[in-house]
Structure formats: C-alpha cells, structure tokens
Amino acid sequence: GARPRVLSGIQPTADSFHLGNYLGALRQWVAMQDTHDAFYCVVDLHAITVPQDPAVLRRRTRVAAAQLFAIGIDPERSTLFVQSHVREHAELAWILGCLTGFGEASRMTQFKDKSAKQGTSATSIGLFTYPVLQAADILLYQADQVPVGEDQRQHLELTRTLAQRFNHRFGETFVTPEAFIPEATAKITDLQEPTAKMSKSSSSPQGILDLLDEPGPLRKKVMRAVTDTGTEIVADEENKPGVTNLLRIHSALSETSIPDLERRYAGQGYGALKKDLAAAVLDTFTPIRERTEKLLADEAQLDRLLARGADRASAVARQTMDAVRDRVGF
Ligand code: ADP
Ligand code: NA
Q1: Could you list the active site residues?
Q2: How far is the CA of 9 from the centre of ligand 1 (A)?
Q3: Are 281 and 209 in contact (CB under 8 A)?
Q4: Which residue in 15, 50, 135, 169 has the most C-beta neighbors within 10 A?
Q5: Cα separation of 292 and 66, whole Å?
Q6: Residue 17 CA: which ligand 1 atom is closest?
Q7: Which atom of ligand 1 is nearest to the CA of 13?
Q8: How far is CA 11 from CA 42, 203, 312, in A?
Q9: Average pLDDT in the 77-95 region?
Q10: Distances (CA, A) of 204 to 187, 191, 198, 248
Q11: pLDDT by residue (tens digit) across 113-162?
Q12: Residue 297 CA, ligand 2 centroid: distance in Å
C-alpha cells in the first residue's frame, strides 16, 4: 500500500543546526524517507512570531534548506520546501483560528512559558496562534503522521481536535494525524553545562556543536567539554552528566551501544574518549558542511531545488484548500 505521509518542520532561527537538532530530529528525517512519503518544511512563518531581521531570516532560511539537503534529504524522494513559498499555510491558519476557542488556545503550555519569558507587551498574537499555524502546516498536506517529542504533544492534540471539528462541521475534509514516535532519540546536553539541553540559545557557543563549525573549533569544543570528578568512563546521569552526554553522543554517531563503549574505555582517561569522539564528530559533520557550502555557492541550483519543492507542496496544498474554501462557503 501507499506509504504514510509524514510532515515535519524546523525553524530557520540559527546560523547552523546543532548536534542536538541533528541527533534529536534531523537524522530521523533522513531515515523516515525509507518508510514514509515525507514533507519537510523550513518554517519561516513560525520564525517571525518573534522579531527577525529580514536579511538574516532570508539567509538563515537558505542555509537551513541547504543543510537539510546536505544531511541527506533527497529531493527525488521527499518534498522539502520553505513554508512562506506556499501561501495556503496562512490562509488555512486563518480559517482554523476561527474554529479555535480562545480558552482552548490559552491552555497551550508552550505559549504560557514563552510569553512569560518575553513579557506581555513583547508577546505577539502570532506567538499565541502558533499552534494553529502548526495545525495548518500538518492538515494542508493530509499528513497521516507527525513526529513529536514530549513538548509538541499538546500541539498535535489541538491539530487532531481541529481536524475533527472541521470534518464534523463541514464534512469529511482532513486526515486526523497520529503521533509518530521515532525510535529513541538522543537528548543531547550542553558541553559546558551538561545538565542543560544543547540549544541555539545556550549561554556559551563553546557548549554547542554546530553542523557548520570548522574542524578546529569542533575539536576544541569536544576536548574542552566539561567532564565530572573521578576518572571512570561510565554512564551515570546523576553523578556524571558530562561523561554520560559524551558517551551518548559517541554512541549515536558510531552506532555502538553505551555498554560496549564503557568496556572499550575501561581503564582509560577522559582524554581518550574525547579524542575518539572528536574524530566521530568530524567524520559526520565535515561532509555535511562541505555539501552545504557547495549548495550555498550555487544560488541558482538551490533556487531550483526550492522551487521544485514549493511546486510539489503547492499542488497538494491547493487541492486541500479548494475543498476547504468550498466547504466554508467562499
Ligand atoms: P533549539 O533547542 O536549539 O532552540 P529547536 O527547539 O528549534 O532547537 O529544535 C528543533 C528540533 O531539534 C526539535 O525537534 C527538537 O526536539 C530537537 N532538538 C533541539 N535540541 C535538542 C537536543 N539538545 N537534544 C535532542 N534534540 C534536540
Ligand atoms: Na528551542
């Protein structure tokens, strides 16, 4: 039978994706191409829920797309596109917003957390309706499955509710998507602050391994990673979060189990683990960086790839919107 359709998006809000994005999400995007009809989206409409410099946003959107092709998203098999290139996202978000209760949207914990951090006067209505736009992203393509981490469960629930509500009120129109739980994704922590998640908003760039970092800085960051007291190389989340993180990264990149790594490094110091880990990081990152640079150097080629992705996405989105517009009474 046909492969289930999957939709996933990522924001173009950093100059490079980092190791956490790669191991926690993007590597699964590559793998899902074997099992799914994949739609992958660089979500620049979501990015502007907080202020963005236009030139920076435009550059980061292209760099994000180039990195996705570089890690192995195959334009022959998958539809990779930029959200703002397909106008139907904003149109469907408006219609779904009119079906969303104010109280219902107010219960979204991610909004509560983010707006509390920003303060009410700095918080846009776009940030408030972000989950409705996310619902539009998913429902436009009639996605069967959406990969979700814990933090996105509530948003997917809202998407399902909106699909069912629309179908009930206007007639069967949308597929109700299911959560797709990818095989255990590694939670990667900051190399300088190993109890905090590796994030583009980390306090120090030394704690983040960026896919586009040069070999020198990458090696340095790994060698200077914060480790723990003692000398033993064992995974122990509570007492040895630094070493545990390094083992987890090593395990994910070299596809070796953590117990196997513990046996390999028995009796050796942290330096040996870090040296091998730096080599593993370079093996993975270097070809990705080189392919990204090549794609960015050929603007016309990247434009063609993105235009093709947008064409394929638009064909599906338009078909959905034709039905939606008709049912709503437009
Ligand atoms: P950031 O945390 O840098 O702001 P995003 O929130 O944009 O990154 O996350 C994009 C994707 O990468 C999400 O699927 C998220 O779960 C994943 N991700 C981000 N950081 C990590 C991490 N440290 N470990 C595992 N996955 C991560
Ligand atoms: Na984040």
Answers
A1: 114, 197, 200
A2: 12
A3: yes
A4: 135
A5: 5
A6: 3
A7: 7
A8: 6, 20, 20
A9: 98
A10: 18, 9, 10, 21
A11: 999 999 988 999 999 999 999 999 999 999 999 998 888 899 999 999 99
A12: 28
Ligand of minimum distance to the alpha carbon of 13: 1
Other beta carbons within 10 angstroms of residue 138's beta carbon come to 30
- Complex ipTM tops 0.90: yes
Q: Ligand 1 test: best mutation among 13, 15, 21, most atoms within 8 Å of CB?
A: 21
Task: Tell whether 269 is in a known binding site.
Answer: no
Encode 46-98 in three state secondary structure: HHCCCCCCHHHHHHHHHHHHHHHHHHCCCCCCCEEEEHHHCCHHHHHHHHHHC
For residues 240 and 233, give the distance between their C-alpha atoms in angstroms, rounded to a whole number.
Answer: 9
- List, in sequence order, the alpha helices (H) in 107-240: 109-118, 125-140, 153-170, 215-223
Q: Which residues contact 164 (CB under 8 A, 6 or more apart)?
A: 176
Distance 325 CA to ligand 1 centre (A): 35
Q: Closest Cα to atom 17, ligand 1: which residue?
A: 21
Q: pLDDT tens digits, residue range 182-230? A: 776 779 999 999 999 999 998 899 999 999 999 999 999 999 999 988 8
**What is the token pair recorded at 207?**
């704690």
How confident is the model over 42-55, as pLDDT tens digits?
A: 999 999 999 999 99
What CA–CA distance (Å, rounded) separates 148 from 159?
12
